């Protein structure tokens, strides 16, 4: 149940009274108070009815991340980026951190193309247990140094609740990969942090499952959440790694106030298709793009087949900016 109050002051007073009455899972946003476990206004008799404007009972289960609870767009501010709303965010970097020199060089190219966030993986969830799994903390050190030298934000994937403190020492933005979208212990752990979280859609996740995963993060107090469509598993994997669900972008933007970005690299899986898929996502309203880049894709340690060269990235970002402006 979401109770719309006369103003923000009334909402905060109702929130305090609810907590004083030991009601669990109650949250406030602007002039609204959300009761995740209640469905009837009679269950909260302490609220001043004269201050109640409306009561919404038919709302998504993922209440805190819904527009019914928070109608205005969430805009997330990091040291070097403004994500969400009318802003357009560009993220790029190597799939895996390979060396200090390489991540710095890729960061220089990304920044020159307009990116403000340097991505890269030091902990890699791989399909095969025998594939390269990342350089661990050494990769984080090199990644942080490159981001600092360039004046960019650092974003890296986290795989386990046990790594939150370690990864949190270095990164500006936690990334939850598609395989961990429903790792609820991990979602709760990053939900207790005061840093933005980029949450990728699971490769077979429905919209409700995606938003519910975001709600797990918000339920622990962290509403700095960025959603990312990265392609879903379909029946034809011969030519594309995944199928970019362009249609879900406007759907999500109607349902949630959170920023919605797109990752065409993982959707395409083949570098020659990354640009058109990325541009389609921007045309559908994506508020940013994330790309994998490598100066020598054939020699990349991970996913070189889908990596763009710096020149290809620059071309895509220029076109993406133009479409966003339109």
From TrEMBL:
Coiled coil: none annotated. Its EC number is 2.5.1.54. It is an enzyme of class 2 (transferase). Residues 82-315 form the DAHP synthetase I/KDSA domain. The keyword Transferase applies. InterPro entries: Aldolase_TIM, Class-I_DAHP_synthase, DAHP1/KDSA, DAHP_syn_2. The keyword Chloroplast does not apply. GO terms for molecular function: 3-deoxy-7-phosphoheptulonate synthase activity. This is 3-deoxy-7-phosphoheptulonate synthase. The lineage of its organism: Bacteria, Bacillati, Bacillota, Bacilli, Lactobacillales.
